[in-house]
Amino acid sequence: MTDLPVQIIRSDRRKRTLQADVIDGAIRVRVPAGLPRDEERRMVEELVDKLRRKLTAGQVDLVPRAAALASRYELAVPADVGWSDRQNLRWGSCTPGQGTIRISSRLANVPDFVLDFVLVHELAHLLVSGHGPAFRHLEDRYELAERARGYLMALRHSGAA
Questions:
Q1: What are the tens digits of pLDDT across the range 138-152?
Q2: What residues does 81 pair with on adjacent strands?
Q3: 108 and 38, same structural domain?
Q4: Cα–Cα distance between 56 and 65 in angstroms, integer?
């Protein structure tokens, strides 16, 4: 699903915005006809990347995955877990009072151990706010925590996510 070809459709009626949809097995991007080519290329690339992340994220059901991790690591079971396209500065977030967790769709293509670590991190926050010793104790139950932290650090510094 993420290797779909990209078709660019230039429109005289479209003035400023771009739109991308999956139609007939391709990603069709509608762009303003007068957009400079270098700006068009950059904007299309960003929009297509975002759409591909969204399509990939839709293939991973976070609710049962988080429930299994909560059970395995003796953490709180969340009321709901979902993907978020709006999280550009954080990998995940939670609302302890509601028991909800949101995971950035930028993580849709990371290895399983990294996604699981971010879920464990947010599950721990359902029990302990902040990042003090009690929180770290819960988070470090995940045996690949240090490796996942390194992966996320490298990902952040590479600008890939």
A1: 999 999 999 999 999
A2: 101
A3: no
A4: 16
